[in-house]
């Protein structure tokens, strides 16, 4: 990243940061001088990520966290405060696409719906609830949620995911109104198509459901490229680093007047 943000003296918690977009966000904050908490349900990868950040000269600690459990999220905040004494920024990134069934909607069962709800929407609620009083007491804080453009456009093959992400956007707006008077900014990033390992599982399903669209896609990366080629004005995929750059901007002092926004980082696949 060429823009230089100075986050020295700041403490940042990033959920779902063992890999993918969350890892890029945690690493970018650490590179900018922040102390970060890598919070993830995956212990092995989470510890490796924290180790990698430290090996690169940053400060990071791993705290095993399952965002589907309220106790686990409350323990995360306690642990972060115990380690760093203060939390400045909470990034609610943990999320899953789940099993892609494709349309029709009747293929979707309540198990898929509930799992998506527990991680993608209720998890964000637990995290915001857990950090709420700390930020109010500090008279300062910054909350960032990671939704998806699917939460604005809808996506038939991932109906449950789209609905939860729409919920995250709306919840972000609600919370920004409630916390704005307390000097707490709450914003949302909506990524479009970022290649992460989750697309390797999705690729065969997309290829089977939409053989024409994905006839040239050989793997998960190919599926992402094809999506972007067909749907994004810029005709290229976004990267975890693109999302991290937006995160660092949105929680910076330079963005102090921005709150309640859902910023698309999607290469121009959606304009609302
Ligand atoms: N990759 C994309 O194209 C894309 C597009 C739009 C939105 N997003 C959103 O970005 C965020 C990150 O996605 P990604 O592509 O990096 O996915 P990823 O699968 O690479 O990483 C998700 C991380 O969340 C963690 N996680 C899963 N369940 C958890 C739980 N219960 N508690 C704590 N951590 C948990 C995983 O262990 C993993 O480290 C998600 O919210 C996702 O919905 C991604």
TrEMBL record:
InterPro entries: NAD(P)-bd_dom_sf (IPR036291), SDR_fam (IPR002347). CDD domains: SDR_c. Belongs to the short-chain dehydrogenases/reductases (SDR) family. This is SDR family oxidoreductase. It comes from Anaerovorax odorimutans.
